[in-house]
Write a structure and sequence with these properties.
With 101 residues, this protein is of the alpha+beta class. Helices cover 45% and strands 16% of the residues.
């Protein structure tokens, strides 16, 4: 593994498009340096930047808008019933469960 990543390597690492990597670098929201007109990203700093975003301290990918965070609480969902009485009961109870029949 090399000490620096190219734009393509970073895009693959973060699972984003190269254009987004250029945008993040242009706005200064991601650690990078230039060498002979080429953007280089220090691997250790990128990994720390991602870890800060996962820790939720306001830095990293969450702040950059590159990857949305998954929902902490998933809503209740009722799936796969063909029972009209159950469907009616769920609607009447207004329990807030999402249904998919």
């Amino acid at each position: 593994m090399t000490e620096y990543m190219t734009t393509k390597e970073l895009a693959d690492f973060l699972r984003i498009k190269q254009r987004k990597v250029y945008d993040l670098a242009a706005t200064g929201r991601i650690p990078c340096s230039r060498a002979m007109g080429k953007l280089l990203f220090p691997r250790a700093e990128i990994e720390a930047w991602v870890a800060r975003g996962m820790a939720g301290d306001g830095g990293g990918m969450a702040a950059a808008g590159a990857a949305p965070q998954p929902a902490k609480v998933r809503p209740g969902v009722f799936l796969g019933s063909h029972d009209p009485l159950l469907d009616w009961a769920l609607r009447q109870s207004r329990c807030g469960l999402a249904t998919f029949f």
